[in-house]
Each structure stands twice: as structure tokens, then as C-alpha cells.
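S.,

Sequence below, as promised.
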Amino acid sequence: MYARFEGEIEQLNQRVLEQAGQRPTAGLLMTHPGVGPITALATDVFLGDAKRFRDGKALASYIGIIPREHSSGGRQRLGGLSKQGNPLLRFLWCEAAAHAVRRDPELRRFYRRKLVQKGVGKARVAAARKLGIRLWIMLRDQIDYHEFCRRGQRQQRNGDACAGMPGERYGAKSHRLIDEATRLPAGSSHNSSWSIVTEEMFGGQHRMDEAETARASWGDTSEKQYGHSDAIRVSRDRCVRAQKKHE
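The prediction came back faster than expected:
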């Protein structure tokens, strides 16, 4: 039965590859690292005329990878993803981004920065959104990956913002390289392609080191307030809460 399923899957893959080969725009998208025929074909079909989107924000809103907003007066409240667009395209972009961040240097730095700032979950979505905007630009301008990188390098030399690198309007004037101090643990998330990416990038025992540091700092202050035995219990409880918060 397994061999029969494998044969059927291989036939479907060949049909998708043939359909993607018949569309020149899908071939351009497949030049981007991590983007295969399924992702390229789905992006080309679902987006249609790429010029109808004004900018990347309009594209993200169309796909549903923007946060919900519940604002009133001068107070802005942002929630989870709106998920109002095509769920298949969101899924494919997330899966493709897990491979693209390993092979593209700029996207890799972008994912590392978001991983440290926002955590694993939000970094995944941010990388998928960045990849989707890249594919939209390639589709709109009818360029391949090498031309896209050439334009990005030219924008870097001119000091403009480019894909994977924020401009000065966000307060970022240079890149802060992620060093060994920002490592995340192996097996810190579910067994998925994103956990493999995180382990390959960082490795180590970041949360264990963080817990030890927190335990040492909390132990000094707690011992003065609660005594030695109570300080151990308070430090242990705080470390457990900190680890659960990261999970």
C-alpha cells in the first residue's frame, strides 16, 4: 500500500512540475531558494495580476498574515493573525520560508533578528510574510532571484531599505549580528522543519543558561526577603514560570 501511495504522489508531483514549467512566471519564482513547484504555482495562480497590489502591506492583508486590530480612540490593540485570505498559500509560504532562511543570507539574518525579538512563533510568520513579499516583487517585476538580489545589493549601497533589512525609518541604522549569546535550545519547539532551522542556527542550551542566570539573581534578592529555605522555593517557582512562558 505504501508503494502504491508513493507512486500516486510521484505522479501528482510530475503533473505539478509540468504545470509549473508551462508558466514562465512560476519558473521565475522557483529560482528563489526554498521555493518549489507547488509553492510557485500556487503563488502565481492565487495572486493573479501582481500589479493590483499597491504595496507589501496590501498583499499581506489579502493573504491574511496581518494582525487583527481592535482599536478605540487613541488606543491601538493588535491581536493574532486575521487569517482572512487563502489558508493554503499561507501554509505553503510558511513551509517554504523554513527552507529559505537556511539558504538566503538576508532572510536568515531577518529571521534571526525576529527570533530574538519576538520568539519562534512570530518569527515564523514574519519570515513567511517576508518571503511572500519577495515572491510578489519577483512576480510583479518579472525578475528572477539573481536580479532581485542584485537590486537589493544596490539598495544597500545607496542606504535604502531592502528585503530582509529595515530602513532607518524604523530606527535601525545597522545590523546587529546574532552571536552565541542568543542561542536557543535543541528541541525547544515541536518536531517540525522550523525546530530544525532553529536548532541549526543556534543550538546550545539558551533557556537553561537563562534559567540559571535568573535563579542566581532571584536567589540573592529572595534570600534577603524570605530566608534561605523560602528563597530556594521562590527561585524555583519563578524559574518554572519563566520556562513555561518561553514554551
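Residues 161 and 169 are 9 Å apart (CA to CA).

Coffee later?
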